[in-house]
Fold these 3 entries.
Entry 1:
Amino acid sequence: MTDKDKKLSYRRVTARCVLSRDYFVDTSRLDVRNSQIENVSDEAWSSLRVVDRVDLSGNRLNTLPPLLLTENITFRGIFVHGNPLYCECDERWLAPWLTSLCSALHEPDSVKCHAPNWLSVRSIVSLRSDDFCRNPYTERFVFTFTVCRQR
């Protein structure tokens, strides 16, 4: 077995955070799906940039770090569906980044927003940048208030 054939699989373990490890450098696949992971440290993401396939599906990730935009990370397979991702204004970079992954992103339409409620269960790759920052409930209230005020 060559170094690049090393696979790490920790399914259904309870871990709150994936931290950087020296052995990530020699790992080709990391499988930590359904492990209740809430966070992946920036250092771990940096270490994972050489890993071909990363499966983080079915965890408790609320966000992915903007670091992913600047690191030269080229996954052949990344799995992030089944996480309760927040789609707030600061996360608007997610849609274009996920779309840029093309075929490397497993089940792209299954990567959905968990919050805020007006974006809940919408596929992130289907969203425009404005969708992350626009609260239709607030806009309706402001519009209604403006109309009533002009009478």
Entry 2:
Amino acid sequence: MRTLTTRITATTRRLAALGGLALLLAAVFAVANPGLASAHAKFGSSNPAPNAVLTKAPATITITFTEKLDPSGSNIIVYDDTGKQVSVGKAAVDRSDLTKMSVQMKGNDSEGYSVVWRSKSLDDGDAFTGAYGFTVSADATPSAGDTSTPTASSGGTASGSSNSSGGTPAWLTVLIGVLGLAVGAGGMYYFSRRTPAA
């Protein structure tokens, strides 16, 4: 009898240790890779590009993002240099390429335009906001602009620069930890309830 009880206790301890180890590994993974759990539909490129110099105002602004967009939470608004909105209507996400969004605009005599965008990731629902500007001058020498990422931030107003990220969602890391605990607890319960055969 004593050896069976000793064996059950040792097995219970091993299962509890495995569950604890699974939770510890999930926590270490989440802490070591914080960027993997916070993917956003970030700015990839645009036409016109940030800081472009054009001789004529474009009729359409198109931005390509790093992830597929949720049309219900994504938009582009274009303002002239006085702060007047010159974009026409809500931006449309391209149904054949959900990473592209465009908006029509009516240029006026302004020399500077600001493009403010908000993207909502179709994958995880995270929102991201950013802005960039371009110049229009009939007398200027045209320039393609920057290929660097414009100012962007997660959620609120624009601040800082954006980097693309992707990977394992936080919920998956937590799920693995919880499953590890459940397996350990289930094993403990099972082996503690078993009665030795006589």
Entry 3:
Amino acid sequence: MTTGPAGVSPVLPAFASALPRRQPGQAVALRVLAGTAGSAAAARELTRELLGPGHPAMDTAMLVVSELVTNSVIHSRSGLPGGTVTVAVSTGAAGVLIQVRDEGGLTEPRVVAPQATAAGGAEHGYGLVLVSALADAWGTTTTGDGRLTWCRIRGG
């Protein structure tokens, strides 16, 4: 199943044999991370190292990769003991492509209204709202061995 804006698909799917391959003028970083809360920080560092100082999409890419990894850890089997999340970040003429592969879960990633707390504020539910607002395109694909959520950010 694929969700996200109609007619939009990832440039480089990150499943099994189709992981990103380096093309001329393209930089690619790939890392398998533990399915833990600390993986969001590791994904931000991977993104920072790949893009380098002064990259026009740096702040947006770091926020988006952090949200996607956090969602994978919280909402998929990747967050169970021994679970992993695979992060692929690539740059090229189309901008920055971020792909997060997890071990799948009971529900599909989707944009929902943030959840209010007892104090009246919302602490959860902003992840894909932010991704949808900041990325030029995003989507998710589910297969038998997991789920890939991706987004593309211009400015590369």
